[in-house]
Amino acid sequence: xxxxxxxxxxxVQNFAGDPPAPINGQVWYNVASAIFNIAEVTTAGSxxxxxxxxxxxxxxxxxxxxxxxxxxxxxxxxxxxxxxxEEYNGTAWTEKADLNVLRYASSGAGTTTAGLFFGGEAYPxxxxxxxxxxxxxxxxxxxxxxxxxxxxxSAGGGGxxxxxxxxxxxxxxxxxxxxxxxxYNGTAWTExxxxxxxRRFDALASADNTSAIAIGGYTTTGVANxxxxxxxxWTExxxxxxxRxxxxxxxxxxxALYFGGDAPPGSPSKTGATEQYDxxxWTExxxxSTARxxxxxxxxxxSAIGAGGQAAPGLxxxxxxxxGAGSVVTKTITTS
Length: 336
Description:
The protein is mostly beta strands. It folds into 2 domains: 2-41, no CATH class; 46-323, Kelch-type beta propeller (Neuraminidase). The chain contains no helices and 29 strands. The chain has strands spanning 2-3, 13-15, 27-30, 35-41, 46-49, 61-62, 71-75, 85-89, 93-96, 107-110, 115-118, 134-137, 142-145, 156-160, 163-167, 181-184, 189-192, 203-208, 211-215, 226-229, 234-237, 248-252, 255-259, 274-277, 282-285, 296-299, 303-307, 319-323, 328-334. The strands form 7 sheets. Strands 1-29-4-3-2 form a 5-stranded mixed sheet, with no helix packed on it. It has a 4-stranded antiparallel sheet with strand order 5-28-27-26, with no helix packed on it. Strands 6-7-8-9 form a 4-stranded antiparallel sheet, with no helix packed on it. The protein is globular.
């Protein structure tokens, strides 16, 4: 614990919990817990263990961060396909209303109160297994809206409920790995320019349907390829340091995070490697504590989560929370 001695030149205030926006070096007395706290700015990003999912799962879709730090929504998993939806409030997961269409390997966009889920697989039936259905989330329930033009699974997804992208993935045709990109405007999906490199199990970091990066994925093996979207076309930019697929991705085109995945060759090939993108290049930062693939990712480079996935030897319900460099954390002060 951090030790605090002397004076900071001001009166220590009382709060029922934490102050709304503490600054570096601020000290306060937490009345509820009867302890003194100090705010410190982190110098490096790190992962810590959060509350576990109620259902261990893989191939779940995840939406971007909500209004609270480390908040998220995940839905679906399998095989077999599921509609299970859980919401994270920064501490614990709560089961919510199920998706209307059971599936796994779907993609997500939006927030915990305005979410969008699309595509996925419904194996073992019906055939073809890939799904085109899109559903919106209002914080309480799911409603079906316009279908994708091309049914598919295991694609990168991101953006908002009214401005989203779905990129790459797996389709029923041969070859089954695709470069198709579709853009959603809140009403309908439109096919736009393809990726330069077709792939599945890729991740997407995107603020909306005009700005995104497609990260990693699988062609005949894991790739390090990263492509940037400007609303019209895709451009190859600097690669990941570690080629892989099935990792969690989040953020925006100038500040993204990619973590976990499968990085063959190697046994085991699952990885906890985490990389951060600054709009130009990728930098390796702190690893996940548990190496895994096919996990859900959501959030920003300041505050993100990685939930579920396939670890060794099987599925996991583990949630890890990312706190980026420069974030303010609360520490307890020893008074004796």
